[in-house]
Design brief:
Number of strands: 0
Number of helices: 3
Order of helices and strands: HHH
Structural class: mainly alpha
Largest sheet: none
Distance between the termini: 28 Å
Number of domains: 1
Helix content: over 70%
């Protein structure tokens, strides 16, 4: 694992310390890693949204047959299942007693 050193004003350091304490993170590194993972997920979501909008703008019309809807439901269920497993692995740690 790589180490990264950053400089922060006291107000931000105090904010981070409060977040670590109140949100149940074990240390500042866990908190920052969580923020970075969230930023990565947001960027991926924005990229996907852009690609979807581009596809809608340029795509060809297709017939909306029963087979289309079945395939769409199957794909949506697969994506939802994958998102649930990703979210559960990104959950914040439980607050320590």
């Amino acid at each position: 694992m790589t180490t990264l050193t950053i400089s922060l004003p006291d107000s931000l350091k105090e904010f981070i310390d409060r977040e670590v304490e109140t949100k149940g993170y074990g240390n500042v590194s866990e908190y920052v890693r969580g923020l970075l993972r969230e930023a990565q997920a947001n960027e991926a979501d924005a990229r996907l949204e852009g690609l979807l909008l581009e596809g809608l703008a340029k795509g060809e019309d297709i017939p909306l047959s029963p087979a289309f809807w079945s395939a769409l439901r199957r794909d949506a269920a697969r994506i939802a299942s994958k998102q649930r497993s990703t979210r559960s692995s990104r959950r914040r740690p439980q607050r320590k007693a």
